[in-house]
Amino acid sequence: MKNDQPETRLQEGGRAIDQQWRELAAKRRTYTALTIIVFAAVLFSSLWFANDTNAGKFFDRLPHFFDFFGDLIPKDGMEIWRALFDLPSPYDDGSFRYNYPEGRHYLFGDFYLPEYFFKMIETLNIALFSTIIGAILGFVLCFFAARNLMPNPWVRAVARRIMEILRAFPEVVLAGFFLAILSLGPIPAIIAVSIHTIGALGKLFYEVVENADMKPDEGLRAAGGNWIERVRFGMLPQVMPNFISYCLLRLEINVRASTIIGAVGGGGIGELLRLSISRGHEAKTIAIILLLFCTIVAVDQFSAWLRRRLTGEQFFLAAA
Amino acid sequence: MTATMNTMDVRDIEARYPELLTRSFWQRYRTAFAAAAVIAYFIFCWWFFAIGHVISSANSDIAGNYLADWISWEARPDIDIHADGTMKIVFGKYSPLGADPHPDWIEAKTETVTRTIEASPSEAPAQPKQSTSSFSFVQPEFRGDGETSKTAGTEPTTVTEEVVTEAHIMMNSSSWIDLSKDKVELTRGGETLTLTTGGKTMTYDGALPEWAYQRAPGEKIIAYFGFAGRVEVEPDRVKVRKRFLGWENFFFDTNSPFFGKSAGDVISLMFSDNRVDPNQSNLSRAIDDILYNPSWQHLDVWTKLLQTIVMAFVGTLFAMVIAFPLSFLAARNITRNKPLNQLVKRFFDFQRSVDMLIWALFFTRAFGPGPLAGIAAIFFTDTGTLGKLYSEALENIDDKPREGIRSVGASPVAIQRFGVVPQVLPVFVSQALYFWESNTRSATIIGAVGAGGIGLKLWEAMRTNQDWENVAYMVLLILIVVYVFDNISNRLRSMLIGNGRK
């Protein structure tokens, strides 16, 4: 700011340093400006490209955007509840729009599960089942990938590469491939989500194992424990709370993932949502979104509560 | 110091600290309970999803074929055997080898004969039949005149032509097929199956070898040659399905003048002045042919891939830009206004909990299919997630720099700028980078519901069950992109966190 004033007073060495500083500052400013320009250029060309390759152009569609939201509001608010609980509609004209009672799943007698609840349970089961499968296999794999338990670098590298491939492979492709082999239904979704979960959880697990305290392990080794005993008594008690906490976090993610996979043909609530949005059945759409929203919030809250309890427990263990 | 304990001491200590030396019932059996619960749940899922039924009705032999299609392709010549023992080798119109190739794995012995042919039903009558059927509402099979037109078309004609009388088709180095008059010999690894064909029947001596299969007597025989493919033999037709490793016609399609040339020839032709096409230079023609290759659609695939990248980039960037100021409103130590904090936080929760899928479907309806819908979906979901993470980071900051800056009388904006932002910016950017990385992956999936990008193209390629090699190509590209972006984001993040520590 006030560079001119002290410069007169500076000795030769000080002046050189001052000069150097100014050059560095100028360079820094140039780099910042360049970064911003490149960033802006990339952003604007990206936006232009996205708008250009989109089916509808942004500014053409914007006015209709709110029409679409208007279309989503059903003319009778009660219709949403009728759609949600599969109650007959007074507007029923035999079309798909109002055929709420058709999807009822009778459990016993007159007691039925509404279609969307049934499908939501299916989606939740896909998520839970594939989280458990992924956790079990990731659990087995992670000990082979951790540096402190697997001294052989080749085994470690193979285990890590397997996890990386499982993690990076697009779920959509796995689902599509198994849809082609198996028939339509939730099983391709289960396989796809499980495979992804193995890779994702396996990575988190082996990082936890690598950060674990090795003293119990040392003690067990000194006492002549074999590998399995070392893992069982030296490692597991330390890492289990973290493992379970990660599994719960993954469960939250998998509920969303199985909804999306459902929408591309894997069954469950996702498929119904896609159909009802594309057919423009406003009451059904709102009912599904409501149900999905509540379920996701409930799962998230439940898992957060459980995780807090677990990590609390872990703190207790660490302190004791 | 050595301490010794006798049994009495041990009991005494056990009695004083029961919680240390005896484990509670729950602690002792929780592993067993968890295992039992998981097994019970698996049994429930087995029933709920009817897993046994689905697996038993799976098309497991198709799975092998589909997987092989990822990295290989099939040439599918049909050899028609006429009644007089002559043959015709037919490659389909869309064959990857071109309509009339003479590959070196088919050795055909030809003769020039003059003969009288009754036009075979598969060729000549097709013409008159088609011309009448176009105005008829009755299906051709049920039309009475079908039979008469066929007999009318079989007027004997005499032609002189070159016909194939014997053919030798190599499947691999130890397996081949010999076709000659009235005889089809299939050889696999020293074992030979001789089929005598005549008119409408086909006979063989002894039992079929293990690699040949016939569903019922009198039906076609299918011989399997492992990876090399399979052959279906009917009395009047042999269908060869020979499999080759690699991706066929990856650069040039059969319609291209560059098709079937070696790499050296292609390059010299590209730069030669003898124009294949008078309207454009050879080089630009070659590039056009590659980009618009009909079976691989390189340009389209790359455009869609770029859309996916753009969706993740722009969506995450906008989410960061919007979440940044909002998170200051949500953090209770920055904005001391409880209702406002809660309002903004609930807004974040709402955006997060309305799934990315729902946003994607919404915006696909609103903007039409394309990357705009994807950008909007990623933007809406991640504003919520990033906002939540950012406000949590803000609530955990060190308050001392702010106090210091406030004490010298800085304006409220300057307090945030110099007291808060330097602490959280590395965390913010590294979170955004992390989401950019994971969005590059999720953008593939939401693309499949129409929100732009390569997802839909992947999905379409899979639905047809024909183009698994295209799926493999796109998956490979996606994996490369994900890998590159993971590394970029990892490096940027470690740079940022390194700077943050200094």
- Give the SSE order of chain A as H and E letters: HHHHEEHHHHHHHH
- The assigned CATH architecture of the largest domain in chain A is Orthogonal Bundle
Q: Which CATH C-level class of one domain in chain B is it?
A: Mainly Alpha
Low confidence ranges of chain B: 121-153
- CATH third-level topology of the largest domain in chain A: MetI-like fold
H and E order of chain B: HHHHHEEEEHHEEEEEEEEEHHHHHHHHHH
- The tally of helices of chain B reads 17
Spatial order of strands in the largest sheet of chain A: 1-2
Kindly describe this structure.
The complex is a heterodimer of chains A (320) and B (502). Chain A is 78% helix and 2% strand. Chain A has 320 residues and is mostly helical. A two-stranded antiparallel ribbon of chain A has the order 1-2. In chain A, β1 and β2 form a beta hairpin. In chain A, α10 runs parallel beside α11. Chain A is flat, with a radius of gyration of 29 Å. Among the domains of chain B are: 137 residues, no CATH class; 204 residues, MetI-like (MetI-like fold). Chain B has 502 residues and is of the alpha+beta class. In chain B, α5 crosses α17, α12 packs antiparallel against α13 and α16 packs antiparallel against α17. About 7% of the residues of chain B have low confidence. In chain B, strands 1, 2, 3, 10, 11, 12 and 13 form a seven-stranded antiparallel beta sheet that branches. A six-stranded antiparallel beta sheet of chain B has the order 4-5-6-7-8-9, with no helix packed on it. At the A-B interface, α2, α3, α5, α7 and α8 of A face α3, α4, α5, α10 and α12 of B.
